[in-house]
Each structure stands twice: as C-alpha cells, then as structure tokens.
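Mods, move this if it's the wrong board.
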Amino acid sequence: MAVQDRQVFALAGRVDSALETARRLRDSRRWVALAEYFETQPEPGLNLELALCKAEAALHTTNHHRAIEIADRVISSNDARLRPGIHAHALLIRAAASRLRGFTDRAIKDASDALDLLPNPNASPHLVVEGHKQLGIALAMSGAVDIAIEHFETALAMCSGTSNPGLEADVQMAFGIACQYIGRLPQAQAHYKNAVALYQQAGLRKELSTAYDNVGVLQHELGEYEAALEMLGRSLEIARETGTPRTEAMAQVNIGDVRLELGQFRDAIDAFE
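Not the wrong board. Structure tokens:
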C-alpha cells in the first residue's frame, strides 16, 4: 500500500473515531465535555456531521456566535445542498443561536426553511420535531403565540415517533413557557409537570433543574409561595450538584423574589448576593 493511501485510511479512521465520540457526548447532552473534546481535535474540515456536532457544542455552551459561524459554513457548502437533513440541521442550529442573540426574525426564517427541507418520509422525526419546536419558540417570542402553539402541538404529536423523552420534555417546556407568557397558567403548569416527569425518565438532571426553576416561577406568579420555594430549592440543589452556575444563579434570584414577596428581606438579600 502506498504511503499516501495509508495516510488517507489513517485519517478516515481518526474521523470515524472522532465522530463516534462526538455523537456519544452529543446524545448524552454532555455539552461542556463535547466542547472541551473539540478543543483537542483538528478542525472537522469537510465532515459536515462532525462540524454540526461542534456547532451544537458551541450553541449549548453559550458560544452562540461560534455556533452561527460553523452553521454558516455548513449551509454554504455544496455537499449540504445535496443532503437536506444536514442542511436543515444546520439551519436549526443557526435558528436557535440567532434567537438567543436576539435575532428573532432570522430564527423564524431559518426554522421555516428547515421545515421546508423536511417534508419527505425519509426525514428524521427528531429533526422535524426540533424544527417545529424552534419555530414555535421564535414565533412566541415575536408575539405570534397562537401560531407558536400550533407548532408545539404538531411537535408533541410527532414525539411518539422519536422514542426520545428528552426531546419531548424540551417541547413540553417550551409549550409551557408560551402558555405562561399569554396567561394560560393552568395549561402552563400541566406542560411543566409533563416536562419534569420526562426529564426524570430520561435522567437529564441539568434540564430538570431548569424545569424546577420554571415551575417555581409559575407558582410564585400563582401566589403559591411555599410551593415555589420548594421547587426553586430543588432547582438550586441540582444546579449545584451538576455544576450549572447559570441555573444556580437564576434559582437564587427567583428565591430572592419570593422571599421579598413574603417580607423576608434578610433572606431575600442573602439570595440575591
């Protein structure tokens, strides 16, 4: 075998190994570990799936600008145009990152374009659900809540085909946030309850911490202060266990708000500090 051939096969082996590792970390939602893994690896180059794993790692570790940069490269590649699933996946990553940076109109367009690429029976149910979820969130943020709810309902109806409780939990949580936004509090509460159960089933502790935080905020809004403190306390405990400082900070702020409402000013200050 020629030296050049051996180098090509060795490179292919490294790419396959890297992709397998990246998939495993992505599927278990170990985003920090995935981002750290990519720091030890060369650029994914022409392997689009590996590039998308890197973009997702950037997205979920709040490096939204980097996620958009990588997604842009994938979207503009000739190979992506020939692979609708890859193209749609990149659009959905860019939609989420754009929304989180405040570009809601861009997020709506990208999510809509992604769904337009996924009408065929061979499309990944996971991607279609993600498309409806991302479009629903962006529409809700833009004020088109009724249309957003239609997309959440479509996503939930499709979740049975994914065998992915974590994805269904994400949709339930987004649906609950939209319902809370427009004052449908009992409906929001039901969706949050479903999300909590599904996150527990999937063993997704970090997401469960965020779900408890959302439940606590809703109970505060309903005037159920002791129940709110219990939920926020659970959120805080899990956030500390899982090393999730952003959720820990959110829980502390929300605990402070409840303590303030109860006139427990010293405890409120402690929480805020």
